[in-house]
Structures are given as C-alpha cells and as structure tokens.
What we know:
The complex is a heterodimer of chains A (about 400) and B (about 170). By secondary structure, chain A is of the alpha/beta class. Helix content of chain A is about 35%, strand content about 25%. Chain A contains 17 helices and 18 strands. In chain A, strands 4-3-2-1-7-6-5 form a 7-stranded antiparallel beta sheet. A 7-stranded mixed beta sheet of chain A has the order 14-11-15-16-10-17-18, with helices on both faces. Chain A has a two-stranded antiparallel ribbon with strand order 8-9. In chain A, helix 7 runs parallel beside helix 8, helix 8 runs parallel beside helix 10 and helix 12 crosses helix 17. The longest helix of chain A has 14 residues. Chain B has about 170 residues and is mainly α. The interface between A and B is medium-sized, with 19 and 22 residues. Chain B: This is Stage III sporulation protein AB.
Amino acid sequence: xxxxxxxxxxxxxxxxxxxxxxxxxxxxxxxxxxxxxxxxxxxxxxxxxxxxxxxxxxxxxxxxxxxxxxxxxxxxxxxxxxxxxxxxxxxxxxxxxxxxxxxxxxxxxxxxxxxxxxxxxxxxxxxxxxxxxxxxxxxxxxxxxxxxxxxxxxxxxxxxxxxxxxxxxxxxxxxxxxxxxxxxxxxxxxxxxxxxxxxxxxxxxxxxxxxxxxxxxxxxxxxxxxxxxxxxxxxxxxxxxxxxxxxxxxxxxxxxxxxxxxxxxxxxxxxxxxxxxxxxxxxxxxxxxxxxxxxxxxxxxxxxxxxxxxxxxxxxxxxxxxxxxxxxxxxxxxxxxxxxxxxxxxxxxxxxxxxxxxxxxxxxxxxxxxxxxxxxxxxxxxxxxxxxxxxxxx
Amino acid sequence: xxxxxxxxxxxxxxxxxxxxxxxxxxxxxxxxxxxxxxxxxxxxxxxxxxxxxxxxxxxxxxxxxxxxxxxxxxxxxxxxxxxxxxxxxxxxxxxxxxxxxxxxxxxxxxxxxxxxxxxxxxxxxxxxxxxxxxxxxxxxxxxxxxxxxxxxxxxxxxxxxxxxxxxxxxxx
Lengths: 394, 172
C-alpha cells in the first residue's frame, strides 16, 4: 500500500523512504517534505529526520534536505501533472491521492477580493498516510447504540488533529453498514444503509468511484462532494439510514447536518476539538450541541501508540457546557427550560425510559431531574438551585 | 546505350529530389494544421473536462495523424511511467528528439517548447491562455508556410527536373 505512495515521491526521497526499516514503515503516519529543510517522518506518535544515508534520527541538522527540483517534481506527480485540475483543492490547501492519503500543502497564497484564490510557490508538503484499521471501532460501537431505534445514536467524534478520527469514522461506517455491532442485543439487527459524504476522498479513497477501503456492503459514497450539499443530496437520493461526514466546522455544514438530523437520518460526524468545552466554543458546532442534537460525543486521545476513546452522552456534554456558563446567573434560566424536552430523544438510560411517557408527566418530573443528570454533586451543586428554579417555570 | 541509361537515371533522380523538396513544402502547413487541431483538443480537455494531462495528451494523440501523434503519445506515457519526470523535461526531450521526423521548422518548435514549459503548471485560465497563445503563433506560422508552399512547391519540382536536364546536357 505504501509502495504506490512512494511511487509519487521524487527519486531521492523515494530511495530514502524505501530504505527505512520495516518497523518504522509499518507505523508511518506522516511524511513531511519542506524545500531546503530536513525531511521529517512521523511514526507511532514520534518523529524523526531522515539522514542522506537513509537512517532516521532525532537530529535535524543532519537530515536530508529536499531540493527545489524534488519539490517541483513532487507537486507535479501529486497533481498528476495537472494543477489546473486540482484548483479547488489547492484553494483548500490539500490534495488527496490514490489510496486516500491526504497531502496538505503550504506555500504562498494568491488572494482575490480578500479570499484565497490559489496557492503558489508550494514548498511544504505533509503526506498523511491513510490506514484502514478494521475493527478499531468494535469496542466503541456498543456504547453508541440506540437500542429502542435499533441503530446508532447521532454521534460526534472529537479530537485534535492526528488522533485517528478519520480512521475511526471509516471503521464505524464499515461496522454499521455490515451490521458488525459487536453487541449481543444487536445481533439480529443487520446492517444499516450508510451514506458517506467524502469531501476529501479520505474516508473511502474512491478510485473511479469505487471505494478502495472496506466500508461494508451497504455503503454509498458521494466522492469529493462538499459536505453541505452532499448531505442533502444523499438524504434525497440514496435514502440512507446513517450518514457519515468528516470534519464538520463551517456554518453551512452544521446547517446541513441539522437538516439531516431532522430528516430522520442518523448522523456520524467528526470535528476538531480537544475537549467537550471546545465544541461549545465553536459557533457552528455550538448551535448544534446547544440544541442537544447529538446523542453521543466520542473524545479521542492518544497515549503512545494506543487510541483511547471516552464517550459522553448529550446530558454530560451539556453538563460540561453548564460548567462554563453556570457562573452567569442569566445563563441558567435560558438553559433550564429547554433541557427537559431536549433530553427525551437522547436515549440516555434514565431519559430513554421517560421518552414514551406523556408530556404532562414531563413537567411533573422536572424537579427531581437535576440530581439524575449530574452524577457528581460537587460540580452540579452550583447550577442546581438555578436549574430547579427554571424547571419550576416550565 | 550506357550513356542513355545514365542520363535517364540522373533525370529520374533529379525529378525525385525536386518532388521530395516540393512535398516538404506541402507537408509543413498540413502538419501545422494538425498541430493546431491537437492544441484545440487539448484546450477542450483542459477547459471543460479538466482531464489530467497524461490522459489529455493520450486523447490528443488519438485524434491526430502519424508523426505528431507518436510524439504526444510518447509524452503521455513518459508522464505515466512514474519515474518522477516533470512535464517540462519530458516535453522538451521528446519534441527535440522527434522533431526531425516532422516537416516543421524552428518557429513551430519554439512555440511548442514554450507551451511545454508551462503546461500543467498553473490554473485553468492560465493554461488556456498559454494554449491559445501557442495556437496564435502556430497560425502565423501556418500562413507563412502556405505562402512558401505556393511560391516554392512548383518551383522546386520544376527545378529538380530542369537541374537534372542540365546535368544530362552537360554530360552528353
């Protein structure tokens, strides 16, 4: 798999990379090529510079420095000698090559009317190696199930860059579409129809429209399509039960996600964030999270080579948010009344039992709610009085 | 008897040289025309199809007749070979090596090499501009070539016959 990627590299770089020990090649995550600066690789959570004799070491001074010619040849082969065909990608700062490897580009931007029109003098390349880790979501998936609806919950996967969001997303899509739920209760569910909007061609790595990664049997991929439009196209045309999209961030993405969420389609998405509080700081995501759209948040973190994930339900996410807003007296009443109906579809164990209940019951139950929602008393003690006051109004 | 056979041979050879020279004059504008068609095709591939260059050149090669098509196909396959060559290098090498097999001259060659140096290296609009510029230059060359053809095609043919006749007369 790496062989095809190495073929794209200019000859000197290719020889150096091919000469790396197999153990390093097996864990390779990034290759960073910068003109006249040392060649760097990232592997297994570490980084190293490659010396001209083909060995890897920590000292950057002895690293091999790719020349101007190397970089030009690399850019040409990455774009298949056709910059004109990848203008849109250049504007966004990356191209994706066969195999789903994304290559980030840095250079000098050309502006037009204040927005980036083009990238020129490209001298920085970050080759991110895409890997299918089949089964990497098997531990996580049982925690994301919505047992009453026999499918997955609306899920947002969060992590800083390079923690394996896309890899996890890919495997989730595979597991859902092949019915690989890894849960005794879900054994009879079968797979779900999955629609993937693969804006960067990273999830599926389509070649002539056919995914090169295993995404299960019931998967439709809209390749290289902008998320906002693609989500709607999928919902309209392919009748998916679960839609999958990578890296939500722009307001129009959030808008499209909201549409899909309301269209009765389950959504699995990823976003850049280091913790739950970040979600509420990013305007597009905050709007969605505020409405309690997501039933589960998965936070990825990596220690050494292992990827750890922790799952939060929407109630816990709101708790995190309230921790930030709790200090402000005006924040609680605005938050509180909306809380009660919002948790109903979230399939949190206590809430799930209540969901089918009649609506008058909701008002009656509003008071004892806060202690259930916030399991750790020291933190919840702050917003509690405000909360119950708000609940009383409703 | 021997003299007569020799005279006939000289006459024949001279005529042939004249005809070959004339055919060169006739062939040049035709090949420039083919080249223009090729560039027109390339323009469409870049402008509308946004076809990657190797494939675009391959298609161009299929659309035009022999000596030129081989050159375009050669560039396309070199780009696909994955040896890390740049378009500029392999374009220059191919057209410099293959030029003698065509009937074209220096002007067309210049225009083509200049195009090769920019091909694939910029945005769509810019590429189209370069292709059109090359086409304009080629059109100018084509008119010049046609004028030359009218002037010199017949001239070189008759010159061949007459030259041979002169040699024969001198020899007799």
